[in-house]
């Protein structure tokens, strides 16, 4: 199936402006044009756009995404390079998760402090300095509990 830029914008949540920017930045050389010069996208293009969005959201620089797209177009001779790129990006994402979990721990600590302060009627009546050190598994359990609560 073929899609217009407007339809792709609706399907992906990316604006038409962003899709045009991606083309100018060399991220979407795979996008074809119809007889009138309008961009046309297919289902494979949508999949690659979703991957580009994912990589951007994980903090991968546009230059690296452009290189990945180029490797994809070059074919199977670049599989090892693509694998290495994703292994490196996995490490970066894991570091982001670790930092986010540490931030979550600090936020949860402040929630606990303020809950106790509200109950006691004063922040001065609670120990604000003790930050319990939770393990990554305990923090991930909190994240799962949050996700479950959001589904209700």
UniProtKB/TrEMBL annotation:
Keywords tagged on the record: DNA-binding
Pfam families according to UniProt: MerR_1
InterPro entries: DNA-bd_dom_put_sf (IPR009061), MerR-type_HTH_dom (IPR000551), MerR_fam (IPR047057)
Residues in HTH merR-type domain copies: 2-71
PANTHER family noted in UniProt: REDOX-CYCLING DRUG-SENSING TRANSCRIPTIONAL ACTIVATOR SOXR, TRANSCRIPTIONAL REGULATOR, MERR FAMILY
Name of this chain's protein: MerR family transcriptional regulator
Organism: Lactiplantibacillus dongliensis
